[in-house]
Structure formats: structure tokens, C-alpha cells
């Protein structure tokens, strides 16, 4: 495998795509991504955001959790759910992809902890 491969997707190697240009025809003619695909993605994103919010809200409804903790939990859940969604969709698990997921989690928590050391309540 070449280091030039895409992290998220690669349906065919670049040499094959250059040798057989008709493989681009589905995307070029608009047969791959339809107008309703956009709305399906919007509904999916809305469902995920509503589920994330209400799971967190119902978990901490009668507690003394402050706005900052609640926001941190929402963002952490959002990062986890979106990363899990991405992990389900990806076809090739490469080292750069795995590292990007892992480093995303680490960077978020390191930033949040560092930020709260200086700006916390």
C-alpha cells in the first residue's frame, strides 16, 4: 500500500482509475449521490444530536451539574458518537485512520483538561 492512499475511502487504486476513466461516470452523471441522500444525512444528523442531548439531559436532570460540565459531556459524547459513526462507515482501516481517531480523543481531553485548569469555575 502506498502512503498516498486516502485515509477515509479508496474504492480503486489510482492506476486503475487512470487506465479506466469510465469508472468516474456514476459520480460525474449524478447517479451516485441523489438529492434525497442530502436529506437522509440531515435527518440522521438531527436524530443523533437529539439523542445525544436528551440522553445527557435525562441522565443529569436532577443533579447539581453545572453548565460547563454538561457542555463538556455533550461535546465528549458528540465526539464519540461521530467517531463511532465514521468507524462504521469506513471501508479500510489504515494506520493513519486509526491514529486520527485515537489522537482526536486524546487531543480533546487534553485540551479540555488544560483549558479548565486556567479558565475553570
Essential attributes:
single chain, 121 residues, mainly alpha, 5 helices, disordered N terminus
Q: What does this entry look like structurally?
A:
- 69% of the residues lie in helices and 0% in strands.
- It has helices at 14-19, 25-28, 35-59, 67-89, 95-119.
- Mean pLDDT is 82; it is low at 1-8.
- One of its GO terms (molecular function) is ATPase-coupled intramembrane lipid transporter activity.
- Residues 1-118 form the P-type ATPase C-terminal domain.
Task: Give a quick rundown of the structure.
This protein has helices spanning 14-19, 25-28, 35-59, 67-89, 95-119.
Topology record:
Elements: H1 14-19, H2 25-28, H3 35-59, H4 67-89, H5 95-119
Helix pairs in contact: 3-4, 4-5
Helix percent band:
55-70%
Flag low-confidence runs.
Answer: 1-8
Taking all Cα atoms into account, the compactness measure Rg is 20 Å
Order of helices and strands: HHHHH
Largest sheet at a glance?
Answer: none
Strand content: under 5%
Number of helices: 5
- State the end-to-end CA separation: 49 Å
Per DSSP E runs of 2 or more residues, the count of β-strands stands at: 0
**How many domains, as an integer?**
1
Mean pLDDT: 82
What's the overall geometry?
Answer: elongated
Derived structural class = mainly alpha
GO cellular component, one term: plasma membrane
Transmembrane segments: 35-55, 67-88, 95-118
InterPro entries: P_typ_ATPase_c
Membrane topology: Multi-pass membrane protein
